[in-house]
Amino acid sequence: MSHPDGTSEETLVRAAGCVLWRRAPFDGELEVCLVHRPKYDDWSHPKGKLKHGEDWLACAVREVAEETGHTAHPGPRLPTAHYLAQGRPKEVRYWAAEAGAGRFTPNDEVDRVLWLPPATARARLTEPRDRALVDALLTALHRA
Prior knowledge:
The protein is of the alpha+beta class. Helix content is 25%, strand content 42%. Strands 1, 2, 3, 4, 5, 6 and 7 form a 7-stranded mixed sheet that branches. A hairpin with a 2-residue loop joins strand 5 and strand 6 (88-102). Helix 2 (118-124) runs antiparallel to helix 3 (128-143). It is globular.
């Protein structure tokens, strides 16, 4: 199967993730979780590639657990990101997800997490396309 941009299903990299949020324990204000990936030295939302036969949402929830140590309680779908990664087209589907129980443990893939107010998170994110997801989260939560 071919996409409008001429790429095939075989070359498309499929990934999923969440814009993970919680209410701050000390004041109840909204916080967004960002992960730092030492391999790329960047700040992003937790996400990763689908495993063979895995559905998009299952991948997003699994990636949150692997990268942040927290369970994810998915909510509304957020915009899908399309971009080139190492010369290959990539599609990343995102969900808003409230953080559940868990505790972060640094690993090879993610060495730090930050819980930040939305405006601060937006400024810290490395990729502009990730900043738009913070705005989409705020819109989705406002509608809820």
